[in-house]
Amino acid sequence: MGGFEGHLYPGLSLFLYGLYHARLIFRALIRNSPVQYLPRCPWSKGRWARLQQIYYVGLVKILSACILVAQELHSIPGQFVFISKIYHQRNFLYRKQWQHLTLYVTFFLSGCVDVVSQNLLPQRCAALEQSAQVLGMFLLLSLMVSHIQDSEGVELQSHMLLIQVIFLLTLVVIAEFWAPNVLQLWVMKAFLYLILGSWLMQIGFMLYKPISGHKWMDDDKNDIIFVTTFFCWHVAFLAILMTWIYGFSFWWYCYVC
After folding, report:
1. Can you tell me the distance from the alpha carbon of 6 to that of 201, in angstroms, rounded to the nearest whole number?
2. pLDDT band per the 50, 70, 90 thresholds, residue 194
3. pTM of the prediction?
């Protein structure tokens, strides 16, 4: 997730995933149905009926992971190797890029698990999907903790706030594994995914393309303190967005559908 695109594309994917979960939970809440995916009825009995029954979330995960891997490999200058062999030395190269690729492969495998569980197995295995999700979040937390070893100033502060969100999200998905149909956990998961994606995109703008046109200064305490203030604004705005999504969902499912 280095560079502007390396923060923008993963952040956008996580933000859209959070929107998807927000819609899912509010639909279940309004219709008083289980939190898990609602059963679908085919729109027709023709040749396209089977396609209309397919759950596409896992396929979107796989596609997103492939795009992120391609973007990461494209941004690497020179030959992409794991260990250099210069003067009988063995040095690890592209450590952050390897971390990114490890994370993307984990999301790819999570998408594969979703596809198998939702579309190929005779009966959907939600526990298998949640296990893959827990594994992905645990790896994300571990990688982000080591990712900030050589960071400082604004970059360090912004990524510390990101780690806090990842830690809370990891706790939520672990709790969801044991209580899969608790509405409060799903609401928190959707909200934290929105914060994670939104703040990751914001980090890309702060570090590489600041909206003000002026670079954030690592030696300015005011800039470092304002990073936390800006993060709180993100949280407040996304709380308002969640409220708006609930209101729109209530109007849609009660008066339109």
Report:
1. 9
2. very high
3. 0.87
> How far, in Å, CA of 207 to CA of 34, rounded?
42
**Measured torsion, CA atoms of residues 157, 159, 160, 161, in degrees rounded to the nearest 10:** 90
DSSP 40: -
Model confidence pLDDT, tens digit, residues 67-76? 888 888 877 7
Q: How far apart are CA 254 and CA 257, in angstroms?
A: 7
Cα(147)–Cα(193) distance, integer angstroms: 20
Q: How many Cα atoms sit within 13 Å of 117 on the Cβ side?
A: 19
Give the three-class secondary structure for 89: strand
User: For residue 161, which phi and psi values (nearest 5 degrees)?
Assistant: -65, -35
Neighbours of 202 (CB within 10 A): 22
Neighbours of 56 (CB within 10 A): 13
Spatial separation of the C-alpha atoms in residues 170 and 96, rounded to whole Å:
21
Residues 44, 176: Cα–Cα separation, whole Å: 35
Q: What is the DSSP string of 162-225?
A: HHHHHHHHHHHHHHHHHSTT-HHHHHHHHHHHHHHHHHHHHHHHHHHS-TTSSPPPTT-HHHHH
* CA-based R_g, the chain, Å: 20
Helix axes 153-178, 126-147, angle to 10 degrees: 160
Q: What is the DSSP string of 100-140?
A: HHHHHHHHHHHHHHHHIIIIISSS--HHHHHHHHHHHHHHH
Please tell me the predicted confidence (pLDDT) of residue 15.
93
- Mean pLDDT, residues 201-222 taken together: 83
9 membership: H or E segment, kind and range: helix 3-31
